[in-house]
Amino acid sequence: MNTATLPDRNKEYAKQAVDRFVRRFDPSYRLLAYHAALPLVLTPELLNYLRNQFLRGEVPWVAEVDLLLSDLCSQVGYELYAMDTAVRAYLLEEMEREPNLGVGRMQEVARLLISYVRHQAQTNPFIGQQELQAQQWAAMVYLDDQREKAVREISEAFQACMTPGGNGFSPSLVNKAEMARLSRITQELSPQLSAYSNLLDYAAVVSRLLSLSDSPDLETEAINRPYPVLSDLELRLPRELIPGYSLQGFEFELVTVNAQGREVKREKGQAQYFTEDLGNGVALEMVSVPGEKFLMGTEDREIERLCKKFGVEYFRAEKPQHEVTVHPFFVGKFPVTQAQWKAIASLPKVERDIDPDPSYFKGDNRPVEQVSWYDAVEFCARLSNLTGREYRLPSEAEWEYACRASTTTPFHFGETITDKLANYNASETYADEPPGEDRKETTPVGSFPPNAFGLYDMHGNLWEWCADHWHDNYKNAPSGGSAAADAGGSVWETGGDKDLRVLRGGSSYDQPENCRSAYRVRNYPDLRSNGMGFRVVCVPARTLSPRFSMISV
Predict the structure, then answer these.
(1) Taking the domains of the chain in order of start, what are their residue ranges?
(2) Tens-digit pLDDT profile for residues 127-179
(3) Class for the domain spanning 273-538
(4) Which CATH code fits 8-145?
(5) Are strands 532-533 and 463-470 parallel, antiparallel or unpaired?
(6) What per-residue string of b and e applies to 513-541 under the rule 16 or more CB within 10 Å gives b?
(7) Euclidean distance between CA atoms 399 and 518, whole angstroms
């Protein structure tokens, strides 16, 4: 174990803070603080788990509350707490020196934390993926047989933050928020990563570049040189980190409800996007969506429950549930609006003519409808020609992944939806929520709260075309989630019905069960309806799979 010492000033501050905490309560509280220092993020449940596993009978349960509410910790989210960086480092140094604890106990805590993270990932759909990721890395770096794996995962996550230029995507797009998060984590774990100096140097340079408002005074060599981390893996700094080029960030509120439709959680979310100027004051906002593996579809037992409850069989199209790998991509923050449609419809034809004003429910900020699948593809082709970037319809897997936004519940809002959360036939109910308003028309985009990726109107308002041909179920479905042939997966064209296309999301006319994240329907690609529209995907050059989402750790 290699725990570097703190600078004297930070160490003295941390020592005084810990001593005050122990004096205020009881000497046994120091033991709990030692064990609580290893995780990067604490929850009341995790702290209770640590105390019960290692300190039952030595430390009273009330110490858990006292620690989380003390000056040693700060609340960083809903039931999420982070220990002061200097205090955490000091406690870990002291724990390693304790004769009855030492490296052995630290490794025991690390193994327990890895087991806890895996259990949470399988059983808790509301826990943030970033929290789980950071926790696992914090534990892995203490274990000799896991440390290099953690280094590789952190390095690959850095690489995945960058969408390289080329293939119509120049300059590069860089997820600065994620790079900042990874830099903070790497620097927090620096005592245990001292053998990987290039990774630490890389994180330090990234942190400096992100923190400077003027041109950085870093040497050119530090910006241009490669940072070999492992024998087969090196990192490079994107020039776009130098101030003057960035994605824009935006904040929003996330809402989670229970089966009664009552709000049980409200928290802040963050995402990044870039803007396409379509002319005449019309813009298209494209949100950065991370890539990862997810479970697509619905498990068999839930399908049987749905079929029995609603008396229909078409939910069986959502099986078998299967794992899909989705690469990073950009997707429209909203369904394509009528103003955006008119702007692109005025451009030169690529393959077919399109009606510049097809919608039944008029309004520049309402979603465009009464467009066929072929119309939507033509829109993407004209938009690609305008921007020099590759635009297309999302694959079905990309759409479901974007809708779920790392949730596993029927809706990204939780166990149900209400008329305050989405535009659908709310006179019908899904769970135990009260009936609501059936608007019977589209609403302006962004009228309801978004999901954790910052995407709006994923449930209801109107059906959205996907790129894939229709298949009656997911038997033999590809494991790559993209519809692009060069991106680790292709449009699912083998088998199925080549004369039908997939639609997702539900509409203002649909019952709530048809607006679930996993629900899928089919229609003819030349059909137009005032309940059908689309949103677009922008295809960057592909990178390694990242693991980033909303909460900053």
Answers:
(1) 8-145, 157-241, 273-538
(2) 777 778 888 999 999 999 999 999 999 999 998 887 544 333 334 466 777 88
(3) alpha beta
(4) 1.10.10
(5) parallel
(6) bbbbbbbbbbbebeebbbbbbbbbbbbbb
(7) 10
